[in-house]
Amino acid sequence: MTGMLKKTILALSRPMTPKPTHIQPRLQSLPNIKSVLFDIYGTLFISAAGDIGVDTAVDNHQAFQAALHAVGLPALGGAELLKEAIEAEHRRKRAQGIDFPEVDIVAIWRQVLVGLMPETTLTDERLQQLALEYELRSNPVWPMPGLAALLAGLKSKGMTMGLISNAQFYTPLLLEAFLQKPLQTIGFDEDLCIFSYQVGEAKPSPRLFELAVTRLARFGIKTDEILYIGNDMLKDVWPASQVGLRTALFAGDARSLRLREDDPRCQGLQPDLIVKNLPDLLQVCGN
Questions:
Q1: What is the end-to-end Cα distance of the chain in Å, rounded?
Q2: Considering only CA atoms, which of 164, 145, 167, 142 is closest in space to residue 45?
Q3: Residue 112: which of 131, 93, 95 has the closest Cα?
Q4: Quick one: average pLDDT of 82-98?
Q5: pLDDT grade for 74, boundaries at 50, 70 and 90
Q6: Is 253:231 a contact under the CB 8 Å cutoff?
Q7: Cα 23 to Cα 84: distance, rounded to the nearest angstrom
Q8: Which H or E run includes 168?
Q9: Closest by Cα among 246, 54, 41 to 164
Q10: Which one of 97, 247, 255, 263 is least enclosed by Cβ atoms within 10 Å?
Q11: Mean pLDDT of all residues in 168-186
Q12: How far is CA 132 from CA 4, 6, 9, 12, 127, in A?
């Protein structure tokens, strides 16, 4: 099943290039860094929506119908039901005290289709294919320039690498499909791949970052030896700084750059680095 999903990713994905930003880079040497953790959408990936599609809750009727058709289901209307189901699940979880809730998109699709097609057999595999087909159409992504070189360079330095991202089951598959390697071969530690859909909370919840800090402590790595890079001052830089990490704002694509200047949590907040080209991190991280 995983192989088929990766083939779908490559078949439906097309090259994109970043849109320039007005932000100037700010680089400094951080020689004591032992671990680099990454956001994915808008940082490692160019993202047409600037974020994962679930976060943007896109109501895209054309993508909805095309995804249904691709998996052999009737191309009915109902894209708005997907958005409504996501919002309803967010409300339910907030009522339970979760400030920044996340959904499992496969469960959301099952809920929507049970209402639309109660007699249809819906296996997890079919729902995963459907969710991926919709995401690739509503929020196309492509690797950020220099991604492969950056990851290979950090791996050669012996850097401990991980991911903290608002994500769904298909997110790691995107990385593996584009780079043609499993995450562990790329250099990511499995315990440091922290995805919102598995935790049930989304950034900017500090909980995802606290999990990373706890797990890195097992390696003897302290918070000021960890660098986190993301494109969003609120969802990335703010929670990472709350738990004591060094931070880098990725400002290489206008689609995804989020400065959040009106948010009080971001006022006066400064990342340690501002990066516009991913391979520049190789110059500043570690020895």
A1: 41
A2: 142
A3: 131
A4: 95
A5: confident
A6: yes
A7: 36
A8: none
A9: 41
A10: 97
A11: 97
A12: 11, 10, 8, 10, 8
